[in-house]
Amino acid sequence: MAIREQLIEYREGSTVLEGLLCYDDARAGPLPAVLISHAWNGRDEFVADKARRLAWHGYAAMALDMFGKGKRGETTEQCQALITPLVQDRKLLARRITAGLETLRAQPQVDARRVAAMGFCFGGMCVLDLARSGADVRGVVSFHGLLKPSGLPAASVRAKVLILHGYDDPMAPPEDVLAIARELTAGGSDWQLHAFGNTLHAFTNPHANDRSMGLLYDPAADRRSWEALMQFLGEVLR
Length: 238
Fold this sequence. Notes:
Elements: E1 3-12, E2 15-24, E3 31-37, H1 45-56, E4 60-63, H2 76-88, H3 90-105, E5 110-120, H4 122-132, E6 139-143, E7 160-166, H5 174-186, E8 191-196, E9 209-210, E10 215-216, H6 219-236
Parallel strand pairs: 3-4, 3-5, 5-6, 6-7, 7-8
Antiparallel strand pairs: 1-2, 2-4, 9-10
Helix pairs in contact: 2-3, 3-4
């Protein structure tokens, strides 16, 4: 087994983006694939490690770029500045993540018929909007994602949806959970939601340790959510 890593430059309009593709070159392709959307700080080692981990399990995984090549946030203010244009313009957000999806699909290692998407925090909102756009993906998975509706005309959600949520997440309170449940049910979607009790935002991130902002790593929720992801991918990408 040899996990290969490849930086891939691509574009959305005039914006240059750069994703990281990981795959096991010892496995016969084309491989089922997973698109990974990052949190509000940009494509970092956290999502790169997820891509490597998925490659070890036999997937071609690409950590996409929502902000632009080399753009990263270090402070709260910088991160907020990076996500604001996309949160305020959900059409732009949908175009940006669709560009990542099309780039992943075009890779020779990838079985373009078997693709799913997953995302963390802001990235969770991105993959939910990908599903809302009617994109042809097998499934999407939101980890402690932002659940606010897009405000755009509803398309037919073709993807199966898995939402992995900390019940005490202040960034997605129970009313948001009920709202997206109603939204997906009204659209006839195949959806499921796992809510982890006594669990805050960013529960998969070992560096999350700020209760005042509602951010706290939870090793049990991290482990359980990953197991739920693997079961879900095994179902939708078989």
